Amino acid sequence: MRSEWCRELLKLVKSVEGGDEAHGFPHTLRVLCRALKLAEGKNVDYRVLVASALLHDIGRPFENQAGVHHAALSAFMARLILPGLGFSPEEVARVERAILEHSFSLSEKNRDKPGSKSSIESCILSDADKLDALGAVGAYRLVETSAQRRRSMRQTLAHYHEKLSKLPDYMCTEEARREAAQLLERLRSFVEWLYEESKDYFDLAEAVDKAFPSTGY
Fold this sequence. Notes:
The chain is mainly alpha-helical. The chain is built from eleven helices and no strands.
């Protein structure tokens, strides 16, 4: 992290993404930490990997306003930023591809085969990003994101089943697959406890909705 280009990226990304623990700069730092750990012992281009990890969500704050998927925005912004920091056209192209390939939702939309990536750097970034959505950290992010997006408890549980529970199937490296299986158990326990403690409430709320459909409850 002593390289000048890395210092400049850190400063830029921190100022753009802010302190949102779920999807802001703290998430980016956690992804970077996981990516560096997954890269140990592998033939990795660390300039490409670090730049990809730092920039993978830089477009997220502008996603709703632009109406463009945050991974596509982040890749576009990387293309504008990196040449000024001494990155070659080939390096920039590899960073762009890694950023585009990291997203679960974009992969689902494009019907990409789970775990299929164009480079080891892309593979590691995708795994690191998905691991951050599992385990105890994943439980924290699930609750925080649900609060931000005003999801009900039912919608929160549905999000777990529709996306988070599938993440281990999308891991690319063997290390990430092993860790994802362990972390999913922690997250699954939290979700099961949430459902168990709320099921009587769910039944009552459903009965109230049927009895008073016009209240908007």
